[in-house]
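Before we proceed, please read the two lines closing this message. Let me know whether the structure tokens fit the sequence:

…
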Amino acid sequence: MPNFCAALNCSRNSSHSVLAFFRFPRDPERCKKWVENCSRSDLKDKTPDHLNKYHRLCARHFEPNLIQKTSPFRTVLKDSAIPTIFENPCRKRQNKEKESNDTPPAKKDKLDAEAETTKDTSEAKSQEISDTSNGDGPPQVDEEALNKEYLKSLFDVVVMMGVQNIPIHGHSDKDPQSKSFTPSNFQSLLEYRINAGDEALRKKFEMSAVNSEYCTSAQLEKMLEVIEKCTRNELLAEVKEKRFFSLVIGNQVEVEEESHLPLFVRFVDKNNCLREDFVGFLLLEGDVGAITERLIAEVTEKYDLDMKHCRGQAYFCSGVSALKVKAVVARITELYPLAILTPCSNSSLNICLANSITFTGVQLVMSTLKKLDAFFCKSPLLQSQLENAISIYYQGNEEKANVLKEACNSKWTDQHDAFEIAVDLLEALLLCMDSIHDNEDHKWNDEVAHNAFVISEALADFEFVMTLVVLKNTLSFTRAFGKNLQGQTNEVFFASSSLTAVLHSLNEVFENIEVYHEFWFEEAVNLAAALEIPVKIPRLYYRKRPATGEEVQPETYYKENVTVPVVTHVIQELSDFFSEDHLRALKSLSIVPAIMGQLKFNTSEETSAEMYKNDLPNPDTFPAELHCWKIKWKHGTKDVVMPTTIYDTLQLSDAKFFPNVCAVLKILYSLPVFALTSDKGTPADLRLKKYVEDTPVYHRNKTMALLRINCGIKHDLDSMVETYLKMFPDSEPAEKGD
């Protein structure tokens, strides 16, 4: 696939020459000068774009100072380069005549024969170039095949960078304070690949010796769009086949200088395992209506999923974003009633309830717990320091000390009893932080000491202590309930039946709030006294409150601003999470054989599953099928152990004889309240968290995040190339200027 020089009487081509070949410029004035100087009258009627695409001049026609060597495989022209070195046909003919007169007759005959042969060859070459140039089709070089291989190499590099979490741009391109001289990791990897022997890239860049980057930013953006689309199609292929899914919204993340919400899709795969995949980011901008429309558009248009098949929603956001997300999912439920809101198994119920409270004191507690988790994860020495502090405070109670030490070696800040553990650890935590901050033996670096000081300041605030005590006592009523929700299927079923008792207890607290608050305030005061923390009202309250001259007592302030709001919010949040449709769905779990047995087969599953009637393959036969299902397990073999979970039930070899029962179980299983059963490595939400921790804000990219978090899926490079050519048919693979 050689390139031929377009100059008249120049027969050089890239197959037999090491010279660089340069495209005609797209600039009309420069292009006109190139055509005039190369003496090709047949090219005068061609457009600059046509000449740029199909014709080249070799390096022999340019002054040496116009040519630059930027790498072993890159030769470029200056932007204003004009070819000026061409042979004069008249002078060449005069020189030949002079040589002929001085040559002996015998030698002259031999030279004439050789000249005739050369002339015939040259004419054939010129005719070949002329024939190719006069047509509008491509030259002899198979541009299409070469461009596809070139694109495939580009896609391969980008995918590799995403999977390995290598930023596309260099430090100096994204970080203003960086003094690095590597503006683009992508360009550097392309050059490395050329040097390593990638023939497609080498040929493309040898043929396209122009003043530009290996790959323009515009082309790279298009490639990222294609990669994102193809990766998501691969992720969601099974979801589309299985139809029913649930949406899970994660906590706010800064990506590409904007706030986004991570989106996850839950579904039951072909192996009847519950999976949750990260599928993209949703821009958190505008009011609730705008975000709702954007979410539905993302799911239906980008993900190509039908919202009518969405059967559940959940979120594990915190702070202000939680308020927006809660309003968004409420609107989606209005539009799609079967997309019921449930708690998410990714987060314990108590942590979820606390995160959704936006009061200052509660947010102080939750942010401090996150800081504690991040702080002690940095080094085993820090963990050892905390264990020493625990031993000091619990010298007379070794059993309690061991329990707390064991808890500290787990993710206790995310557990159902996190607030109970925090209260028990508070004295040891404060001692540990003060010791690290003092740093008398210079054991810790400045960053660790500073972080310890920030945490100790939060712990030594009475607002923190009081709020922590209120959360501990209020959420003690939901602790066992929430733990059962994340247990086995039978535990979830019976937990849903105990919701009434939980709400009754919380309402009793609210009705007797004066008494409960008095006890809780006294507990907080005693704890603060042990830590030498003064009991006082937050400074911010006095700045907001108009000066009335009335003195507000701390007990009254914390009752009105902490105890009452927290209890009220928890009651309301439980009511929202466990709507009538949600409870009806959980009651349908009674078709699980072990639950049927515990209920003595005295259940009304048909009534509970009525909400999913239109989702069944054969709704008319469901009552009869359900009757046979009960008979199967009620009068089955005594030695047979009845399945206790949805997963175990779906694994039965004869489950295919009960298509309606299986359909109901799969829909229920996709609800976010159920814990994941997939054994395919780290859950997607934890991989996202790791990506955010490892990647600076200015290097985060939506497409690269999708590749990194889903690094285990297959990538079809040929499919990406074909998709690129279909999406951008008018775009040349090497979108470059002159």
Observations:
- The mean pLDDT is 83.
- Strands lie at 21-23, 56-58, 67-71, 74-77, 245-249, 253-255, 258-268, 274-283, 310-315, 340-341.
